[in-house]
Write a structure and sequence with these properties.
Elements: E1 10-13, E2 16-19, E3 23-32, E4 38-47, E5 50-58, H1 66-77, E6 85-91, H2 96-100, H3 123-135, E7 141-148, E8 152-160, H4 165-174, E9 178-181, H5 189-195, E10 200-207, H6 213-229, E11 246-247, E12 250-255, E13 260-264, E14 271-272, E15 277-282, E16 289-293, E17 298-304, E18 308-309, E19 314-320
Parallel strand pairs: 5-6, 5-7, 7-10, 8-9, 9-11
Antiparallel strand pairs: 1-2, 3-4, 4-6, 8-10, 8-17, 12-19, 13-15, 13-18, 14-17, 15-16, 17-19
Helix pairs in contact: 1-6
């Protein structure tokens, strides 16, 4: 299904051409700080000496999702991109401004709600524009790395576009602990790529502003499985213990019915039963103790790590097969 019209014979980014068997670092200038300091996006291109698919590996679309940045960076340091077939385009950190401010957004705007972008628009809009024009136009498919946000920890999972059969295939190849179809969000990167017939899978693991080793390892191993599947790299690749992803068909956030101090008693990724107590919410004076129960049999695919809870806050994201 992917074996056609490969784009890696000559990769062109920002007017620079990278031929078969070549590697290059290209820095795309985006803007300057008020101090005049130039902000650039580093883009690594590893073009194999044989024709094959071109894949984009992208971290830091949200600046505070440091797991995604570390995952892609670590593969650079470990020289995991020894590509002999096809091409890998690597963007370790897209949202430089958000990263500097430890923020999801860029100057108050979410880059992942700014596509297709504009050459003369806001900074977030220009970032989206150059990503699509300079980088994404070269690729056959992409893996976009993310984490949970606001103290929400996502257990390693792959999200794909339900209408995209190639995305579904990529999700199976990646083989994260969980996988599920996720609706396209207007003006998102995945939505814009879908319009351009470019399959994108989204890896979610861990939470914002915090490194989580297991989530990083799962992301690296899944990425290597994709590269190995398309014969882009040599060597043996680790196979997960459960062998295949658990396909989630229904999802629900369990929300707080009362306010107070929240204590979870189940682990992320754990299998739970209907009616099982997942955690407790106590008032600050110890007079009440409210039990949070599971609405059905399923798995915990994300949980809230923040102890101070208001009524209606999301506590556990449950997935049902």
């Amino acid at each position: 299904m992917f074996e056609q019209n490969f784009k890696n014979e000559i990769i062109e980014i920002r007017g620079q051409k990278i031929g078969l068997g070549e590697s290059k670092l290209i820095k795309i200038p985006i803007d300057r700080l008020p101090t005049g300091t130039l902000i650039e996006i580093p883009v690594y291109i590893f073009n194999g000496d044989q024709l094959g698919p071109t894949i984009l590996l992208q971290g830091g679309l949200h600046g505070d999702e440091v797991n995604s940045i570390e995952l892609v960076r670590r593969m650079l340091i470990d020289k995991s991109y020894k590509i002999h077939r096809g091409c890998v385009i690597v963007v370790p950190l897209l949202n430089v401004f958000g990263f500097l401010n430890m923020s999801r957004d860029m100057h108050g705007k979410d880059v992942n709600r700014s596509f297709p972008g504009s050459k003369t628009g806001s900074l977030a809009s220009r970032m989206a524009y150059y990503l699509m024009k300079e980088i994404t136009n070269n690729v056959d498919f992409a893996i976009d790395f993310h984490t949970g946000g606001e103290q929400r920890n996502n257990f390693p999972q792959i999200r794909y576009t339900p209408e995209d059969e190639r995305g579904f295939q990529l999700a199976n190849i990646f083989n994260a602990p969980f996988m599920f179809g996720s609706k396209l969000i207007p003006k998102s990167f995945r939505n814009q790529c879908y319009k351009n017939n470019i399959p994108v899978i989204v890896y979610e693991g861990g939470e914002s502003l915090r490194l989580e080793e297991k989530a990083i390892e799962q992301g690296i191993n899944g990425t290597l499985r994709v590269l190995k599947h398309f014969k882009m790299i040599n060597g043996s690749i680790q196979t997960p213990e459960n062998n295949t992803s658990i396909q989630i068909n229904k999802r629900k956030w369990v929300r707080a019915k009362v306010a107070g101090l929240f204590t979870p008693i189940v682990h992320n990724g754990e299998k739970v039963k209907k009616g099982q107590v997942l955690g407790h919410i106590m008032d600050t004076y110890g007079e009440t103790n409210f039990s949070v129960k599971s609405p059905y049999d399923g798995y915990v695919i994300a949980k809230n790590n923040f102890p101070i809870i208001n009524m209606g806050d999301a506590l556990f994201h449950l997935g049902k097969i």
